[in-house]
Design a protein that fits this description.
Radius of gyration: 24 Å
Helix content: under 10%
Number of helices: 3
Structural class: mainly beta
Oligomer: single chain
Largest sheet: 6 strands, antiparallel
Shape: globular
């Protein structure tokens, strides 16, 4: 009766009831990991779940995976052996991604006390329902991970460098970024392999590393034809230069490099990138240059954009100041709004026509402050760092910028504020060929069992639609959790935190 009442309740306030899947009966064992799988267009392909079914022997555990498509239909499942090495090494799932229209790459991280982490991967073939052995990068090559702990312990002593794996959906393969285990400077390359573990190309980013002069890299963005790296030069204390290195994704040859920031720069930046029509669009916030602190959120001066053509030439550069928005929002030259709140960046939405929407949140730090040492590449780190300290938060503020990075409008999205909850942004989903995006957040009204889902849709024309949907499970023992779904839908997980027997997924169409 409760299930029927809840379905009717949700359909009345914003959902049209759809497919249901019961995780509690999907497989035996304990659910230990699950994730969303995205296709090459970054649309939801499906969902995968891993269940621990207990130890086979002292060094092996049986795991079952279950794959659901975007409509919650069961597509494939199988069991495989998962190494636990007699609990001598801690293991963690590091990634799980969809590749090649028929493969799933599963990454693992192994840690041992006082020793570097070891990374590995295996592949699952969907149609064949097969699971490959586990592989790692060791001393320049991809090899099968030893199947027994004694052999593993012996070989690990001979490892000079390992590698961190990440997948590339656009080109159906793996990046391996070298990590040193023993000797500093042995981490020289980023390499790209296909799913058959065949080396396609390599790029040497750290040819002559010294403790006071070395390079680091991160993969900033990738498209079908280009890989964009953020490469920093370091002196052992801080980065002295950041540059964007564009590589041909088919052969690894350098297309160009663009010096983004160095000791001669006026500003420090946060950095978000997206390729549109073979041009690299860069957006973020900026503060006065500080060689040791990088971007300083407390001294945020506004937003900026830089656009590079396919040869790395700068074809546009524009910096806004907070005064530029005074006609649309009450804000001072230091970026403070009413009651001395400042605006924390939450997401930058880059549309395919080149217009940009910037979502911020009013917040006020506690006396102990937030960390100002914000790594340049990743905007989410700003949010994560900001939420580690006590703070006051208020409404969202959305800045809508046109294709020339001129402000079109500023809109405030009011939130119902509840003491005890600070950061409530959930996720976003692009649609309509990346010309529209919906972002979701939660408002807690009375408790974590009674709350409202905010659904806000923004399009490239600068139009905003706001919806709020009550999300209340009528029995206190149940929790509702929203999850990204296919276009026009949202996935709701309703479960009992203390009882594995109740754990359901519902795919609901947004009304």
């Amino acid at each position: 009766m409760k299930r029927l009442f809840l379905a009717l309740f949700l359909s009345l306030v914003g959902f049209i009831s759809a497919q249901i899947q019961d995780l509690a009966t999907l497989a035996s064992g304990k659910l230990v990991y699950n994730t969303i799988l995205y296709d090459t267009d970054n649309q939801v392909y499906g969902y995968i779940y891993f269940f621990n079914q207990g130890d086979v022997d002292k060094e092996n555990t049986q795991m079952e995976y279950v794959l659901l498509d975007k409509n919650l239909n069961k597509v494939a499942n199988n069991t495989f052996t998962f190494k636990n090495y007699n609990i001598k090494i801690n293991s963690y799932f590091s990634f799980c991604n969809y590749l090649n229209n028929n493969e799933i790459a599963l990454g693992m991280r192994y840690t041992t006390k006082n020793k570097p982490s070891i990374y590995s991967f295996r592949t699952i073939k969907i149609n064949e329902k097969t699971v490959s052995p586990e592989y790692w990068y060791r001393n320049g090559n991809i090899e099968e991970v030893p199947t027994d702990y004694k052999e593993y312990k012996k070989i690990i002593k001979e490892v000079n460098n390992t590698g961190f794996f990440s997948t590339n959906k656009k080109n159906n393969g793996f990046f391996v970024k070298e990590l040193y285990n023993k000797k500093f400077g042995t981490n020289k390359f980023i390499k790209f392999y296909n799913t058959n573990k065949e080396l396609q190309w390599e790029y040497e980013y750290n040819p002559n590393a010294k403790s006071n002069n070395f390079n680091t890299i991160s993969i900033q963005h990738s498209s079908e034809n280009t890989i964009y790296l953020l490469q920093s030069q370091n002196n052992g204390r801080y980065a002295t230069e950041y540059k964007i290195v564009a590589l041909n994704s088919k052969n690894g040859e350098k297309k160009y490099e663009y010096v983004f920031e160095n000791n001669n720069s006026n500003y420090s930046h946060s950095l978000i990138t997206k390729e549109i029509n073979n041009q690299l669009v860069i957006v973020g916030n900026y503060s006065k240059y500080n060689k040791e602190k990088t971007f300083d959120l407390d001294k945020n001066l506004g937003f900026y954009t830089i656009i590079l053509d396919e040869k790395g030439n700068k074809i546009k550069e524009k910096y806004t100041q907070w005064e530029d928005f005074k006609g649309l929002i009450d804000i001072d030259e230091k970026g403070r709004v009413e009651k001395n709140y400042r605006l924390r960046p939450t997401e930058f939405y880059i549309f395919n026509n080149g217009s940009i929407a910037i979502l911020t949140e009013k917040f006020k730090q506690a006396k102990n402050g937030i960390g100002n040492f914000i790594p340049i590449p990743i905007i989410n780190v700003i949010v994560d760092e900001a939420t580690k300290r006590e703070q006051k938060i208020d409404d969202f503020v959305l800045f809508l910028m046109d294709t020339n990075f001129n402000v079109k409008n500023v809109k405030t999205i009011e939130k119902d504020l509840t003491k005890g909850y600070s950061y409530n942004y959930l996720f976003s989903q692009y649609s309509k060929n990346r010309n529209e995006v919906a972002f979701f957040y939660q408002n807690y009204l009375i408790s974590d069992k009674e709350w409202v889902l905010g659904v806000n849709t923004i399009n490239s024309k600068g139009e905003l639609k706001e919806d709020r949907i009550p999300m209340t499970s009528k029995e206190e023992k149940y929790t509702l959790s929203p999850i990204p779904a296919k276009e026009g839908y949202i996935l709701l997980r309703e479960y009992n935190e203390k009882d594995d027997k109740y754990n359901q997924l519902r795919l609901e169409k947004l009304n």
